[in-house]
């Protein structure tokens, strides 16, 4: 009697394979900025050839954009206030979660922010979409009208917050509660002037 042939591994659909490849990129992000992900390492972890990865993403930039967008979506989901949170606590909670996010993913987050500022159009597009969504959430939480002045002020505050939190995670010059209070105070002063 002959042994039955080993079952063939199930083939993944194109969408499943793309999701797997993006997930691998996300798993590497805590230690590797997206622009430094190597296609060979991603393909190796997926158990596919480098050329097959390019079947699912036409270029490295397409792959990097997909990973960047997925990371931005995760960050946004992490930062958004939970349903039913009191308005007064929404911005403070977002700030606390943002500081925690930058602490956990400092290098990748700074690469995201700097890539957007440095003129990488694919990073800038994802960054601007994410920031615009966060500005809208902050305006709602602060019960401010979504007009050009308030949008501009809150956007500028986000830039200040990104820079200060990035520096603070490298060199904490004050306790975390003081950092959060300072960021909230600056926001309140900007929008109530």
UniProtKB/TrEMBL annotation:
InterPro entries linked: DesT_TetR_C, Homeodomain-like_sf, HTH-type_TetR-like_transc_reg, HTH_TetR
Annotated DNA-binding residue span(s): 38-57
Residue ranges annotated for the HTH tetR-type domain, each copy included: 15-75
Keywords: DNA-binding, Transcription, Transcription regulation
SUPFAM superfamilies to which the protein is assigned, alphabetical: Homeodomain-like
PANTHER family on file: HTH-TYPE TRANSCRIPTIONAL REGULATOR RUTR, TRANSCRIPTIONAL REGULATORY PROTEIN (PROBABLY TETR-FAMILY)-RELATED
Protein name: TetR/AcrR family transcriptional regulator
